[in-house]
């Protein structure tokens, strides 16, 4: 199930500039310096790197996020798919029909993955501090967070998570424990997606 989720929701690197970087900046300082906004909708380009494959798997689409309703992840290319991530469930739809639903309460690791993605999209990074060690870097152009898992059971799933942005999240990378990697670029939204 985790492999399916990570394939469907996989986060190109936006440089943080050439100015001298400040390391160890607090999460609050990042919010204040960049007036950080929640990205409610937008486009994405995703790459999934798998060991044994000489090239990444590409996908693209759009997303919608609501703090009450969760994250809707719509893959448009190469195949159409819709994944809905809520606090307690993950549901996949094909052609508008529910294909499967998983109750994350019954799977603690899946619940944690849900929490990671929802915390990232809502900018509630402090919720992740109990599970990850944060390393921060800030320049005049943007910020970067590097998350290293604290617990052994998390290290069995992920080596690191990297977030980059300026006034909103622009890049997400998750390196799995086996070396597989997901990278996602977040791009400005088009009006048609904001209304869907």
Q: What is the name of the CATH class?
A: Mainly Beta
Distance N to C terminus: 27 Å
Mean pLDDT value:
75
Elements, N to C (H/E): HEHEEEEEEHEEHEEEH
Strand residues, percent: 35-45%
User: What form results from the Cα inertia axes?
Assistant: globular
Main-sheet strand order equals 1-8-9-10-11-12-2-3-4-5-6-7
| The CATH H-level homologous superfamily | Lipoprotein localisation LolA/LolB/LppX
CATH topology: the name is outer membrane lipoprotein receptor (LolB), chain A
Give an overview of the whole structure:
With 196 residues, the protein is an alpha+beta fold. It has a single domain, classed as Lipoprotein localisation LolA/LolB/LppX (outer membrane lipoprotein receptor (LolB), chain A). 19% of the residues lie in helices and 43% in strands. The protein is built from 5 helices and 12 strands. The protein has a 12-stranded antiparallel sheet. Strand 6 (89-94) and strand 7 form a beta hairpin.
Task: Give the structure's gist in a few sentences.
The protein has 196 residues and is α+β, with helices and mostly antiparallel strands. The chain contains five helices and twelve strands.
